[in-house]
UniProtKB/TrEMBL annotation:
This is Phosphoglycolate phosphatase. GO terms for molecular function: phosphoglycolate phosphatase activity. Gene3D superfamilies: HAD superfamily/HAD-like (3.40.50.1000), Putative phosphatase, domain 2 (1.10.150.240). It holds the Pfam family HAD_2. GO terms for cellular component: cytosol. One of its GO terms (biological process) is DNA repair. InterPro entries: HAD-like_hydrolase_sf (IPR050155), HAD-like_sf (IPR036412), HAD-SF_hydro_IA (IPR006439), HAD_2 (IPR041492), HAD_sf (IPR023214), PGP-like_dom2 (IPR023198).
Length: 214
């Protein structure tokens, strides 16, 4: 196995098959106020950022009051109207396999309440020694989540491998001086991922386990 000490996973689009759910939630939130919903491609481009930062990029014309209303509407969609979180089919087995060789962690653009709900719904909390959300750290692509996890676990950032499905994940890793793997299972296209620093681009978690075993 490759000699990393900790694997830091993004959540949405990396472990959880939730990209379409997020797109629908954002569009429903806008429709609730009679605002034109953003296009799917535009929403996908912001997945991985904090919700506040995503809204700033999607609709820079929103004032603070409108932004807060949109955040509350999305949170209502997430906690009361969405379907239960579903992992990619190979996620559970891959996490079990990798846990035998590495420490595992999560760095996500979700809030703490959202991540905790997802971990409980998928019964995956026990896999991870550390988790970070935008409630504790700056949004991606800032490096704070990676650096905070490394500090908690006592590892150097170069010993942490970041795995994610967006350029925001890859730039976060680069800013922390950590290596990264791009997965093509989520929000960003291979063409988009190609623009950000990464060691390899893989088609899923099973391929990640095989790459680590090379």
């Amino acid at each position: 196995m490759k000699p990393y000490r900790v694997l830091i996973f993004d959540w949405d689009g990396t472990l959880a098959d939730s990209t379409a759910q997020i797109v629908q939630g954002v569009q429903n939130s806008f429709c609730r106020f009679g605002w034109p919903p953003p296009a799917e491609a535009d929403i996908r481009a912001t997945i991985g950022l904090s919700l506040r930062e995503a809204l700033r990029r999607l609709c820079p014309q929103l004032d603070q009051q409108q932004t807060e209303a949109a955040i509350r509407a999305y949170q209502h969609e997430y906690f009361h109207r969405r379907e239960q979180t579903v992992l990619f089919p190979d996620a559970g087995h891959t996490l079990q396999r990798l846990q035998q060789h590495y420490w595992l962690a999560v760095a996500t653009g979700k809030g703490r309440r959202g991540l905790d709900a997802a971990l409980d719904e998928t019964d995956t909390r026990s896999f991870f020694l550390a988790t970070r959300t935008v409630d504790e750290c700056a949004s991606k692509p800032q490096p704070e989540m990676v650096l905070s996890i490394c500090d908690e676990l006592g590892v150097h950032p170069a010993e942490a491998l970041v795995i994610g499905d967006t350029t925001h994940d890859l730039h976060m890793a680069h800013n922390a001086q950590s290596p990264a793997i791009a997965l093509t299972t989520g929000a960003h296209t291979p063409g988009q991922l190609q623009t950000a620093p990464h060691l390899a681009m893989l088609d899923g978690l099973t391929s990640l386990a095989a790459w680590l075993a090379e």
